Amino acid sequence: MSEVNFSITASDKAERYQQFLDQVKPCIEGETYEVSLLANISAALKEVFGFFWVGFYLVKDNQLILGPFQGSMACSIIKYGRGVCGTAWKENKTQVVADVEQFPGHIACSSLSRSEIVVPIAVGDNVKGVLDIDSDELATFDNTDRLYLEKLVSLIIKTIYS
């Protein structure tokens, strides 16, 4: 990913995401190093959207291991099916959680996290990891976030897992 200064001017959430995707796509094309790409994506999402915590967990040895992230310290290992991240991995389905305290089995890596979205990074049925984004406000994420973050994950998959 080459250096980029994001110029996001839209006020509408969907338009902001589309501008983000348009600007990040040429920066990640051709990247072959998983950790480098994920680190830069984490930084870009945090910079542009100001999320509380943005990062990736990668499947290693049948558990999710903390990967590149931006934000406060986080849980290092998450078991299959546990918490929001482990559930996204198990179900291979994006999880949008308006209030993490209402999510059965939520893992409180930070007591400041209030809502969360987790998008699995899957090649077919093989989940390679998850994109995890936390907010310090309730009900931050909706279907628009899900749609555009799934598009971002598709770009990541095409770039480093294809």
Number of helices: 4
Radius of gyration: 15 Å
Q: Kindly, what is the distance between the CA atoms of the first and last residues, rounded to a whole number of angstroms? A: 17 Å
Can you give the mean pLDDT? 93
Judging from the principal axes of the Cα atoms, what is the shape? Answer: globular
CATH class: Alpha Beta
CATH topology: Beta-Lactamase
Strand order within the widest beta sheet: 3-2-1-6-5-4
Q: Structural class of the helices, strands and pairings? A: alpha+beta
At the fourth level of CATH, the homologous superfamily is GAF domain
Helix content class: 25-40%
Question: Could you describe the largest sheet, including whether it forms a barrel?
Answer: 6 strands, antiparallel
Order of helical and strand elements: HHEEEHEEEH
Oligomer: single chain
Number of strand elements:
6
Q: How does CATH name the architecture?
A: 2-Layer Sandwich
Q: What's the domain count?
A: 1
